[in-house]
Amino acid sequence: xxxxxxxxxxxxxxxxxxxxxxxxxxxxxxxxxxxxxxxxxxxxxxxxxxxxxxxxxxxxxxxxxxxxxxxxxxxxxxxxxxxxxxxxxxxxxxxxxxxxxxxxxxxxxxxxxxxxxxxxxxxxxxxxxxxxxxxxxxxxxxxxxxxxxxxxxxxxxxxxxxxxxxxxxxxxxxxxxxxxxxxxxxxxxxxxxxxxxxxxxxxxxxxxxxxxxxxxxxxxxxxxxxxxxxxxxxxxxxxxxxxxxxxxxxxxxxxxxxxxxxxxxxxxxxxxxxxxxxxxxxxxxxxxxxxxxxxxxxxxxxxxxxxxxxxxxxxxxxxxxxxxxxxxxxxxxxxxxxxxxxxxxxxxxxxxxxxxxxxxxxxxxxxxxxxxxxxxxxxxxxxxxxxxxxxxxxxxxxxxxxxxxxxxxxxxxxxxxxxxxxxxxxxxxxxxxxxxxxxxxxxxxxxxxxxxxxxxxxxxxxxxxxxxxxxxxxxxxxxxxxxxxxxxxxxxxxxxxxxxxxxxxxxxxxxxxxxxxxxxxxxxxxxxxxxxxxxxxxxxxxxxxxxxxxxxxxxxx
Length: 557
What we know:
Strand order of the largest sheet: 10-9-12-17-14-15
Structural class: mainly beta
Number of domains: 3
Shape: globular
Number of strands: 32
Number of helices: 4
Oligomer: single chain
């Protein structure tokens, strides 16, 4: 009891301190079903505040957000604040059964957290089932009052949410795929701010706009272009970059990219367009459609916009060029140098697997099995009776184990396509395993894609932290020569990294936030298959490094 009182006092002191340094930004989210018309068809979807996409939240660095969520939908719901560190507020992170039990229909939960050391474009979304297809919105963090961007102030800021549209109930679509052991149906269209074709943005000629791009699509990386206009990347995942000029952007599910666009062309109308980057070959199906929005210069009335030439969906060299040319902004706001001393080295394979078909069940996956996925040959299975964070805080055994491996159990030629159907390698056991980290330890993690079943790019998202991307490349990671390529000067900083198709990426972060932190693929087809794990970060021994107790209204399983 004394420990609980001590932790509660510490939490209240921290909250009081955060409130004193920023404003309280409070919103109410009513989650309900809404009938909309898309692709000439009426459809009921789950949304927040009868809006698709949901409401944009605006805040400043240092503010405290209080979001009251009332679930009036027929489904369990959670909300994840994608990219927010959640320093000492892991209870507000949102992934179902990882940091909280879901909010049941008819019940509510209040998310409270401080925005510390972050500014830029992030977003929020449902983190259960496939509901994030329509339950999502932008989270825009401006600098503190009196401070400015590290680039010229734009005339206007516009969130541009890229998504996908399914002509059917997304919960049913996911469950049908899982029940058969196969990939679910593909999307029917891509969207810009919720619309497949008709979004329109009016601009003033000669002015520079800040477009805040968010990829909210469930399973597709996207190329984005604007006809006859170049773009300057100034931030990714709410971390500033060295300005990078380009005519094409590549953005993975979960990622955000801030671009400056100077509208300096002849008065007219121009399409902005998004089309898929399909890193796998044609054996893996994808929605090969294009979404368009219209940018109209004010005072112009023509109805024939100019269309940009779009890349081939399999243009991996173009995607890799863009993704590897981005660099961080040393000396810019919230820049943190790369930690040089590494305490934990991890080499983690990521990819698709098979799972045995249960008895008395018909499976339609390869060899009559079920499709699965894993990290280091461990296929993640979330608990259902409690959350992992509650088990961690209350020292409850039997919910997860602390033996997630630092390397795969078998070493092999990870990207050799001749092994893609090797039945001695492609089955992965189900488990709920974490890697335990000492508070403030530095972790270097090599993500290595495998060639099992199909070679493709996997966007990997780390909750609770940003990380430096030290290097990335194709083939198998070479521990002797590839470290010579590490960028310690100005590496890009992200919370979601697209691990190159048939390749690897090296990230490094400091575990300075106690709690349970999910690591998972941000392709929602692969997440329920098991492409995930979690870090358990221990308390640091001081009030400022100790996880407070859970909120009183935390949902129960």
